[in-house]
Design a protein that fits this description.
Largest sheet: 8 strands, antiparallel
CATH topology: T-fold
Strand content: 15-25%
Shape: globular
Distance between the termini: 18 Å
CATH class: Alpha Beta
Order of helices and strands: EEHHEHHHEEHEEEEEEEEHHEE
CATH superfamily: ApbE-like domains
């Protein structure tokens, strides 16, 4: 999903779009006088989470933890926030949104930043193996120490950007309505200058101006797709969404899942799980109280819950 038209009507919106973690990000605020402080807040959170949880940084906490060979590592408050969010995502999805899938991602050849991965061409592929699961994460909350057991390695790519979007939106919303989008994970707090924010939902990387729009004044919306981050490995096209039960990449009946929920983090977790639940995805999303737009591999669109959309010609 890309963040398309912002604001609900005629009044102008102060916004900026930029690139972070190889992804498109957008910040939009209700009032002009919010913007500079909001942008500083966004970069403060991004920098802190990058140092804590970017597995492609050699000096990050997550890299040191993944190379600690099971030894406990003292971690920062930011790392603990990221870890807590990842564990919550696993709980919401019965373990399908699992931070211990890193070994499986490496087996698929995802051992470097995505732009570098695409530039290197076809990758070798090792045999798939299930993720060890969150039980392999030993977190001493009182001592602020974390250890990984059973050879586990962690990756927070499924949750960190959504967490940042929520945290920034919560902080900025004190001064007025705000939208924070990072790589298609959107957090919304308050209204735009002329009503609810209009968020464009698309199944491709190209904005046409005719996307469905959803009107939001709170919570979050996120889209997961098994078609947008792909590369070749072992003679096949693979993607970044790994089923922790098998170590294989997502290959179910749905190609794209857009989910609206009470927070960006929860929406992201449910959207990820929707592509792994298979035909049961509508049931699980409804049970979670979420609204969703599911696109099958043949292009058929299914709606779940109270998905509210505006006309594409708006």
């Amino acid at each position: 999903m890309l963040l398309d038209t912002l604001g609900a009507g005629r009044l102008p919106v102060t916004s900026s779009t930029f690139t972070v973690w190889g992804l498109t990000a957008t910040l939009a605020v209700e009032r002009d006088d919010q913007f500079e402080a909001a942008l500083a807040t966004l970069w403060r959170h991004l920098d802190a989470v990058d140092l804590a949880a970017n597995r492609f940084r050699s000096d990050s906490e997550v890299t040191r933890l993944n190379h600690a060979a099971g030894e406990p590592l003292e971690v920062s408050a930011t790392f603990e926030d990221v870890l807590a969010a990842a564990l919550e995502c696993a709980r919401w999805t019965d373990g399908l949104c699992d931070p211990t899938v890193l070994a499986a991602l490496l087996d698929l050849g995802y051992d470097r930043d995505y732009d570098e991965l695409r530039a290197t061409g076809a990758r070798a592929r090792r045999a798939a193996r299930p993720a060890p699961g969150v039980a392999a994460i030993d977190w001493d909350r009182a001592g602020h120490r974390v250890a990984l057991r059973d050879g586990a390695q962690v990756d927070f790519g499924a949750s960190a950007k959504a967490l940042v979007a929520d945290r920034v939106a919560d902080e900025v919303a004190v001064g007025g309505g705000v939208v924070v989008e990072i790589g298609g994970d959107v957090a919304v707090r308050g209204r735009g200058p002329d009503g609810p924010w209009a968020i464009g939902v698309t199944d491709s990387l190209v904005i046409t101006g005719r996307e469905e729009r959803v009107a939001l004044a709170g919570g979050g919306i996120a889209t997961s797709s098994n078609a947008t981050r792909t590369w070749r490995a072992g003679g096949a096209v693979v993607n970044h969404l790994v089923d922790p039960r098998t170590g294989e990449c997502a290959d179910g009946p749905f190609a794209t899942a857009s989910v609206a929920s009470t927070s960006c983090l929860r929406a992201n977790a449910l959207a990820t799980a929707a592509l792994l639940w298979g035909e049961d995805a509508p049931y699980h999303l409804a049970q979670a109280g979420a609204a969703a737009r599911l696109v099958r591999v043949d292009g058929t669109v299914e709606y779940v819950g109270g998905w509210t959309r505006e006309g594409a010609d708006r």
